[in-house]
Known about the structure:
By secondary structure, this protein is mostly beta strands. It has strands at residues 3-7, 10-12, 18-25, 33-39, 46-51, 58-60, 68-73, 78-83, 92-99, 113-114, 118-122. The protein is globular and about 40 Å long.
Amino acid sequence: QVQLVESGGGLVQPGGSLRLSCATSGFNLDYYAIGWFRQAPGKEREGVSCISNTDGLTYYANSVKGRFTISRDNAKNTVLLQMDSLKPEDAATYYCAAVNTFSCYLQREEYDHWGRGTQVTVSS
């Protein structure tokens, strides 16, 4: 059974950092691309970052480029999202998602498997 479990969310002040973790199980992460998405209340779920399966190509939404870093450790079945210089507009529920392809995408429709999310609050 494919499972993705996000963790690492919480309350942080503007300018602070958080590291989100996506723990995966039930499938071989080597063959899957992983994406991070977020959804704020009243807004659509949007792609934040993604990483391809074997060569680790990464993509970022313009809104987070230069502040967020995605990485993967296939041996530990984990994908991380390091978030620095956080802004109030980064507050949302963050989800990781998996798709059995080489390339990754920032479009949620491309993903087959989703976690339940972790809440990020950015406030002073």
